[in-house]
Amino acid sequence: MEREEALKIVKEQLTEHRYQHTLGVVETAIQLAEKYGADVVKAEMAAIFHDYAKFRSKEEMKEIIKEQGFPHDLLEFNGELWHAPVGAYLVEKEAGITDREILDAIRFHTSGRINMTLLDKVVYLADYIEPGRHFPGVDEVREIAKESLDKALIKAIQNTILFLMKKNQTVYPDTFHTYNDLVQKLED
Ligand code: DGI
Ligand code: FE
Ligand code: FE
Description:
mainly alpha, Hypothetical protein af1432, 10 helices, binds 2'-deoxyguanosine-5'-diphosphate, binds fe (iii) ion
């Protein structure tokens, strides 16, 4: 699928604000893919579609998670996590994207996973540092991203965990698993 067609499909699913965020993620994902040697075309496609399901109702997302046998523990945690696996499912079903690597990068763009691929990392980090993001600590992660994809990712996940904990929110176990996995591999 061409970039323009993909953007048109996604635009219809999103608010203008979320579409502008998506364009920022696309631009950043391309830059990171070029810098760190990921597949630029797949990075672009995954970035375009990463928040495809962001505005689906909680009811629809819940149903899909149950029916498709996605990890049911997701339902016990923050609903913000759901649009990632549901997005991967709907992007395949509705937009006809079949590439596993692209679908996985979408699936794991919020929680991460153990053994993240280069493409997963590029999309995760691009989502965090795209130019439209303005939360505390994002500039530090942008700086680290110039030197190390893994170190930037670790800092981004640390910030997210701390942010959730400060608000007395739960943290999905896969977020911790992703963090631990990246730190352990960095030490090797
Ligand atoms: O969809 P975006 O806003 O672009 O970004 P995202 O897909 O990374 O969603 C992040 C949101 O999910 C953020 O507001 C924090 C929230 N969230 C809730 N619980 C968790 C979580 N994020 C992670 N990584 N882990 C959690 O356990
Ligand atoms: Fe998202
Ligand atoms: Fe996003």
